[in-house]
Amino acid sequence: MVILVEIILYLLAMLGIGWYFSRKEINHSEFLLGTDRIPAWVIAFSERATGSSAWLMLGYTGFVFSSGLSAVWMAVGSILGALVAWIFLAKKFMKDSNEKQVLTLPMFIVERFDNNKRLILYSSSLLIVIFFIFYLGAQVAGAGKTLFTTFEISPIVAMVLCTLIVIILSFWGGFSSVVWTDMIQGIMMLLTLTVVPLVALYHIINQDLSISATLSSAGGGMDSWTGGLTGFALGILFFNNFSYFFGYLGGQPQLSSRFMALKGKKEVKIGIISVVIWSIFSYGGAFLIGLTARTLYNNTNFADVETILPFMINDLLSPWIAGLLLAGVIAAIITTANSQLMVIVSSITEDILNQGTKIKLRDTQLVKIGRTLVVTVGILGLVLAMVSQSLVLLVISWAWAGVGCTLSAVIILMFFWKRFSSIGAVATIITGLISTIIWISTPLEGILTSRFTTFFIAAFFGIVFSLLFPDKKMTVNQDRNSEVIG
What we know:
This protein has helices at 2-22, 28-33, 40-67, 72-100, 105-110, 117-151, 155-206, 211-218, 231-242, 244-247, 253-260, 265-296, 308-316, 319-354, 363-387, 392-416, 422-440, 444-447, 450-468. The protein has 486 residues and is mostly helical. Helix 3 packs across helix 14 and helix 16 runs parallel beside helix 19 (450-468).
């Protein structure tokens, strides 16, 4: 009962923040990208919480439990990817988005080209909507797992409650509400991922257990940083685990929108420092949770290894502390679900309706449409979570490949290769979409993850089509903005 009360109080606090932002009337751009008053460290914590989410708290801890030391490369790839994005890409996103006054990643890409704007806009928006609805469903499914493990209540009831919170927060305050609640939830995640492994290590020492001995006796290369593999098999393991790196390189719209919300170089520096601190403690803590869980519960059969963290919290901590830390797990779910929802809504309202059609809509109309879509898409995500039997980590992995790795290839080529053409951008997006769907639908996914292959397949076709179909330079007398974007 104590745990339930604390979680309810936490959720009410989140709703209070959403209500605070709902008091101010906001326009369409503020609904999608916030105001100028969001501090850099808040944006950084929001970006990290959103970029890690349930896959870190539930999926990654379970993966470490099952895989052992070799799972570290997934954390290494994610941390390096985030740092590369903040150090080398954040300033470019901030500068270009402020100059061109764009609100979404698809429009950010479109503004880089003079030709084929309509194809780029629609293909990138379609890519995001398709995969992110499933991404949203995975977060809702994660909420069901957490609350089911904690209270043994129906996962469906738990998913409905989580969806209601997500819808209300996004409906009320838009981007600003999401970023500020993300920041608090990022702190909660950091607290959970720091405290739990320390408590687990205390119990291991008291029981005279050994992590290394447990991993060694488990077999299967769990006590090896290379998974006990060599040669080609080792390369496959490394790239599969490290491959989250490629999705961080500017292609995740819920993360790039945070870069676009920055307002100066000083804010980027503050963001980098915040990201380094958060990532080291959070990813390191999640890795230790998986290892200590294997040591403490080596003889326990878990029906679902992605419920290990909430199980540990309930088992090792007093109800008062457990309630606080379980709120951190739920925070990870809500923070990303909010962001996924806003990305889908912005793709439809801004990219497809506002920029992609000739229909002239007022700001107030766009905000109303956006809020209607928040409810509609939120319910759709709930339905997908109810009917899906897939694991949280698996579904998020697919979305990471389909959207993150595809659009990261576009961003990298766009920023660092002058000959990248508009047809090349379309080819990158379409081949990324098709190759991901084909890859995850065949046994190929079990050999080499689509998070790795999608990035390079999409980039390859982007380069080839750019060389085959270079953009013709517009004449001086032509207005770059004369073409209708759609």
